[in-house]
Design brief:
Largest sheet: 5 strands, parallel
Bound molecules: cobalamin
Strand order of the largest sheet: 2-1-3-4-5
CATH superfamily of the largest domain: Cobalamin-binding domain
Radius of gyration: 18 Å
Distance between the termini: 44 Å
CATH architecture of the largest domain: 3-Layer(aba) Sandwich
Strand content: 5-15%
Amino acid sequence: MSDTLEDVASRFSDLDLDGTLDLTRKALEKGFSAHKILEEGLSRGLDRVGELFERKEYFLSELMVATYIMEHAMKVIEDKLKSEAGGGGRRGRVVFGTVAGDFHFIGKNIAISLLQASGYEVHDLGEDVPPEAFVKKVREVKPDIVALSALLLTTVSGIGEVMEALERESLRDQVFVMIGGRPTSQEVAEKYGVDAYCATAMDGVATANKYMEKKRGRV
Ligand code: B12
């Protein structure tokens, strides 16, 4: 990894707001893509905060400060990130939410802004979303895609609950389902019969585009 992005990550994990923002701006000036700054700088810094939390060197208050820093850093890279995602006309409709019991939304919101920048109409159900709320929204807006985020090992099973609810209501075959978030994986996708696992928000855009092209080709 480059020294610049390593510096972004370490300023971030030291919870230095000004230093993180300053180095993020410098990384943009140096020509790093916003996507790379996000994944190799900011998210890496946030990962370290998570590790320090796990080792009990940081506490909930530090996680909250980290959230604050991430929100501000996102404002610095947002426009560039969106332009990298590529524009386009109306591409498709997405219903997005973080599964029940889970209040993490930073990753979801990044994925949503990239999808919107790429021309998707996104219905954001927010966090801690019960399966019934997904069902209700799917009936109401008839999306092409349902996108689920889960950040806790204890809430990954919420993905299965949404899948069961869609199945029960005979909606499963009408939507493409994609998942993301740290504890999710290809195995989790297969376990719950999900169509695609996305490692990053950018993957989400690529996956959605690929699906929509296929769907349009079929029509
Ligand atoms: C910030 C944070 C918080 C904030 C959340 C702020 C918010 N409202 O979002 C606060 C302080 C509230 C919090 C609370 C808790 N947290 Co927390 N949190 C984190 C932390 C540090 C960062 C998460 C994050 O935002 N990452 C940055 C984003 C950009 O990354 P991301 O979410 O992975 O998203 C990217 C991709 O995955 C993708 N993506 C995500 N979802 C989706 C979905 C789709 C469809 C697509 C296409 C893409 C996609 O897009 C993003 C960009 O590429 C993580 C550690 C970590 N590194 O993950 C711990 C972490 C997730 N939290 C943890 C824990 C334990 C908790 C608490 C239980 C703590 C407590 N004791 O209360 C509570 C749980 C509250 C709840 N019920 O949800 C643990 C989970 C452990 C586990 N294995 O389950 C972690 C891993 C920390 C740790 N190492 O221990 N947390």
